[in-house]
Amino acid sequence: MRQGCPASMRGDRGTENGHVAQMQDFMTGKESFIYGRSTANQQRCQFWIDALGILKKVGQFAGDFIDISLIQFCCMELLQNDIDSMVQVWNVHRIRPTKNQNSPNGRPFVMYKLPMIYGTRSYLQSVDEDKIEICRAECVFRDEHPCDRDVFNICTLYMEEKG
Predict the structure, then answer these.
(1) Pairwise CA distance, residues 87 & 83, whole Å
(2) What is the pLDDT of residues 4-24, one digit of tens each?
(3) What is the pTM of this model?
């Protein structure tokens, strides 16, 4: 497995990307996160904004701990499958050539694994294991429960009782 981080990274100003930007800058030792506009994920985000907005409008979603945990319990697997599918499609899609000589073209997965085919090299930056561990400690990793463990247990028990 390759250890390190990209020489630079680009993302939108979404909440989660603030954390990613801090880790990227920390690992490279310089400002290496570039903020830009995001149009690719707006449709997916809009679905959830609309769905939760409708639930809120009819008094079925307040956005508190329980509501968020229940949405996670019911939808996390669906959402994760959608994200996994999107990643798979993105990694093998073809980036078409453009007139811009600096703009890469090819399939992202192949470009990452075999940069020499494209007349370039890997821009993976080596990172001290200590820095990786510090960043890892700041992350929350998924476990077998899609939501708060107590909420998960209560929901599972309720579903078992209702058959």
Answers:
(1) 6
(2) 999 999 988 887 889 999 999
(3) 0.74
